[in-house]
């Protein structure tokens, strides 16, 4: 992003007042997350893609650690020529970010030389290095799964003495808690190791196409790499297998929309051998494929399917019905693959010479090679690992609750991770001394106050951006992932008169449909979606795949052509318009909509 022009501006951070009833909210987050006076001179936008809700105190780690890793990989390891990392601040519980550009041309040239050497090594050895990544991330998951919350009994086990271990069990309370935090940090470094390079390859190809074909749309570029088989869709595929098995075993009548998972499981268990076979298949699918969060892995309360079966069991009745009717539930991967070849060949034929065609082939080939990582990593990182991480932290919360420091295990998420360590040390000391933990009178009033603050902050409508608008929003990653462009900003500012019944955004996935809107403010409302409705939401996650089988189209407030909502919609062959900035504000549940995924236009029919 270039330097601000200073003429157009969103509210300055210093001008935003505290939310009534939430005074003192700053104590939930570290000092380095607070806006500074000089931040008024910079442009920030609300990262509602990853943080669509108020961030509880512990969950602040899900911005602190990822931005530490993303910036390190982008700025210090691979030396991207035109950008450093992302800075973030928290305001009234919401995460705002800005990308730090490299504007000096000499510095860009210097960094480019490093980038070509370092990134070039990864691109040239992608498959071998990716295989190593796969092994490392699976080892990290095994490590987090192996972390134990120590049991502090009256006496340590005799084996601690006879084995001459050399330390009592209370030592492991802090060590194992640290282990969880350290592994989460390492996971995010692994997470971004390939991700930014994947985006980088796409950015270069995107820029080439824009220059070579000035009239090309973002979606046409994206469709040249669509139709890839990626791990993130495996949980949904497992659900379809379970639905098919239910039909095969004559259990289909038990899967009725609206039935609670516990009742369905109980009824299945009463069906003898057939029921036992289905339940065994469910257990096999759950590990690891149900370790997928209903959100995007940034909030402790966005539980996984394994923790809460509501989402998968909401999808099963429809899948069962479709299989009984003989419908094909596979994603249209072959059609998308044929389409990507057709589009690529049409544009390739427009190029003037052999050199241009060779460059086109090389860049497109690299994009297709790196693209699967862009989606597949999410299952291992944001979902499987992070599900386990939050489960372990919840178990430490249970220790604190059992020892009387907290009223209940979930209260640990209203402490910052450094505060949770203090509370655990209180337990370690009391067990060692034979005394009593002192944390109840200290932490329980703080937790109660923070719960009240989070509730008050939830009612605040955060501005989409803060500070002066730059002369040009030219960071391609910000554009493709978040959908933040000059046009988006103009809409946010309200400079253009809004068309009464039209909402505009990115043409993310092709197709035109009409249907009834279902507006969801957060992922916890996902069970409200009914067959054939048009989903309107702030942002979607890839884990919503089962719901994509029910809806006619998707419309989101935020997201660009390479956002996960856009990618998933294309893979499911469903129209989508993303990055509207205002869909959830202007559309109401029950509105009749006309969604044009080819042009990025949503018309409210009434």
From TrEMBL:
Positions in coiled-coil regions: none
Pfam families the record matches: PEP-utilizers (PF00391)
Keywords assigned by UniProt, alphabetized: Kinase, Pyruvate, Transferase
Protein name: Pyruvate,water dikinase
Gene3D superfamilies hit by this protein: Phosphohistidine domain (3.50.30.10)
InterPro entries hit by this protein: PEP-util_enz_mobile_dom, PEP_Utilizing_Enz, Phosphohistidine_dom_sf
Highest taxon above the source species: Bacteria
GO molecular function: kinase activity
Domain PEP-utilising enzyme mobile: from-to ranges: 530-600
NCBIfam families: PRK08296.1-2, PRK08296.1-3, PRK08296.1-5
